[in-house]
Every structure is written in structure tokens, then in C-alpha cells.
User: Which sequence fits this backbone?
């Protein structure tokens, strides 16, 4: 595994048993036929469940509508993009040459999708509890 991916694992606080999952999570559909879209789908659901549980635990007096608004704020593209930048995902995301020249490594949608895909990859690699711990650490 390249040094940049090891550094990302350290920033995530999670070491992959199956490093190919992390590599796939960072691969945009423009770069390869084995890309991150399915992991993104899974990661979105895991992220929503973990954030919902965290809010339920840490906000015992909040009403359902308030919890829903807080969750939406945390899992929206803008929040995931900021988190991706803090983790330095632009240095590790794999894009086609054309997408890279067009600034794709900084594009909010691409980086937010990669964040969801990483969550999906952690879930497949280590289960829900591992994914929940990473999410709790990041959020």
C-alpha cells in the first residue's frame, strides 16, 4: 500500500485488513471500472445510521424533527467535503487525467462521495462497530 494510503489510515484511525477496499473507495468512476459508487451507496446508509445513533445518545432531550435537522447538517455534501479536505483526500483520490485537470480532486461532490465510500469500505472491512468508531472520531 502506498505511503499516502497508510497516512490516510492513520488520519482515519483505522487500519484496513483488506487495503483494496480503501483503494476502491478512493477511485472515482472516471479512473477505473472498479470504482467507489457501490461503496458510496453503502457508506451513505452506514453514515446515516451511525450519526442517528450518536445524536440519539448525545441529545436525549431533542425532538425527532430537531434530530433530523442535526443529522441532515452533519451528512450533507458541504460537511463531508470539509471533512474530506481535513483528511487530505485530494492527495489520495484517483481520477482520470481529464477529471484531474478539471479540478476534480477539489470538487465537493467527488470528495463527499469518497467520504461515504470510505465509510462503506470500513464497514465491509471491519463491521458496523468499526465504522461507528471511525465516524464518531471524525464527527
Assistant:
Amino acid at each position: 500500500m502506498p505511503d499516502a494510503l497508510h497516512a490516510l489510515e492513520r488520519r482515519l484511525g483505522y487500519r484496513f485488513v483488506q487495503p483494496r477496499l480503501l483503494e476502491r473507495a478512493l477511485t472515482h468512476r472516471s479512473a477505473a471500472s472498479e470504482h467507489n459508487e457501490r461503496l458510496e451507496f453503502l457508506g451513505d446508509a452506514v453514515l446515516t445510521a451511525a450519526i442517528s445513533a450518536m445524536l440519539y445518545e448525545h441529545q436525549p432531550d431533542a425532538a425527532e424533527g430537531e434530530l433530523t435537522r442535526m443529522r441532515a447538517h452533519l451528512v450533507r455534501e458541504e460537511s463531508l467535503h470539509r471533512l474530506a479536505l481535513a483528511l487530505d483526500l485530494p492527495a489520495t483520490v484517483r481520477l482520470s487525467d481529464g477529471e484531474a485537470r478539471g479540478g476534480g480532486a477539489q470538487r465537493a461532490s467527488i470528495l463527499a462521495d469518497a467520504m461515504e465510500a470510505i465509510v462503506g469500505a470500513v464497514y465491509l472491512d471491519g463491521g458496523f462497530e468499526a465504522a461507528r468508531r471511525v465516524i464518531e472520531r471524525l464527527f
